[in-house]
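Write out the 3D structure for:
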Amino acid sequence: MRHPHRNALVARRGDPFARLIDRFFSDQLPELFTTDQLPRTNIAEDDAALTVSLEMPGVDESDIDVQLEDNQLLVRAERKSETEESGKTWHRVEQRYGSMSRTIALPKGLQADAIEAVYKRGVLTLTIPKAEAEKPTRIEIKSE
């Protein structure tokens, strides 16, 4: 008696998309992470500031670049590969490496010239204070 799932398995082997999915979930992972990545990002706001946190595990502080241009915050980083060390045979490489970047458009009302950046335990936290609200100017009316 033939196994009922055998025909499905044979059909699956002929489907290139199914083979890609099977390879992805197999024990031998394909290299998918050699291009620019988007670091996972959290953005929070309170009365005093906007806080942007970006996950950058394994990145050296010296390999992070933060720039502000036209009210856009650009964060770039590079995690160097350890697999290029000579004398080692690598059996599994699952950690991501390579370039990562993220551009975040900042809302109005922030003091962009007062951004504070702290890198701790693989997380870059940028704190951007809010500008003090401009008070309305009272115009005195004179009678004639």
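The helical segments are 6-14, 16-24.
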